[in-house]
Amino acid sequence: MLDAGYFISLAGPLTFKSAADLRTRVARVPLDRLLVETDCPYLTPVPHRGQRNEPAFVRATVRCLAETVGLAFEALVERLWANSVRVFPAFERMPLAVA
Fold first, then answer.
1. Phi, psi (5° rounding) for residue 87?
2. Long-range pairs for 38-42 at CB < 8 Å and ≥24 separation?
3. Would the N or C end of the chain have less CB density within 10 A of its end CB?
4. Using CA atoms, how far apart are residues 48 and 12, in angstroms rounded to an integer?
5. Alpha-carbon torsion angle 90, 72, 70, 41, nearest 10
């Protein structure tokens, strides 16, 4: 998929205990090809399992991804934002809010 120019987007399952193999594979994806998304209302990330998924929970997926790729949370958020703007240029007009 990377050779074809695609991005790799991750959601809540990245945080699952059973996803060790996925995390190993994701650690090899170039940072400039990663995106993170939510799959509302399903596939809620840890530690929110058992709850209805919501967009705010994507933060847990990003925290897991940051640990997986060895970056600080804030640095990864900036990288993901830059990737998002590449895919969706209209996002450039939106402010980045990290909470």
1. -80, -40
2. 38/11, 38/12, 39/11, 39/12
3. C
4. 9
5. -50
Q: Quick one: tokens of 44?
A: 């809620």
* Rounded-to-integer distance, Cα 95 and Cα 80, Å: 14
CA distance 12 to 40: 10
- Cis peptide bond N-terminal to 30, omega within 30: no
The pTM of this model reads 0.92
**Spatial separation of the C-alpha atoms in residues 77 and 16, rounded to whole Å:** 20
Tell me the per-residue pLDDT of 30-47, one tens digit each, with 9 for 90 and over.
999 999 999 889 999 999
What residue spans define the domains of the chain? 8-93
